[in-house]
Amino acid sequence: MHPTCTQKTIREEVLEKQVADILGSIEIPESFHQWAINCLKEESNKDQDDRHSIIQGHQDNLSLCNRKLETVVSMRINQELEAEEFKQRKNELMDEKARLMELLTDAQNRVNTWVDHADTLFNFAKTAKSRFEKGTIEEKKAILQALGSNHILKDRLLRVDLNKPLTLVKSMAPEAKAIEASLEPLFSENHTENQAKISEEFAKNEIWWR
Known about the structure:
Structural class: mainly alpha
Number of domains: 1
Oligomer: single chain
């Protein structure tokens, strides 16, 4: 212990229990995870036409830029442009091409990225507590790091500033668990109508849409 440290020591099992409690506060049921991702995928599909239009627009602009480059090169070969003017036009078009390629790549990557990120977030919230309790030292460190920042231990109490997306999940978790608990008898029967009822109950709660 540092000679100037005034904080009392804390047993490892007590500290791990506190971490597990924090992870428990963001834990969500599997049923909520699946319902939420299905909702996000539906929204993503609704926006698909708009995204394709944007991508097509970037592709058209990139094709036009390439044709301009070919024209400038052809003009130089035919000695219709001086070397200095050719260099200036070519550089301008190359900069424009790089900008358009970046826009195109970004638009293409966005198609499913945000749904994938949400799936990763919900999966972490759903499984982090059980993985922490069963994990190795390194696995526990990785989970704690992913949980948030500013890990402060004061008066034998651990405080963690949750990452912003996890703060949102934490606000949803109690209600999600309460809804699942109220419908728990339905989970004993794996019928389509029961799953639809569970989804209906989640959809009716206004907390998700705030």
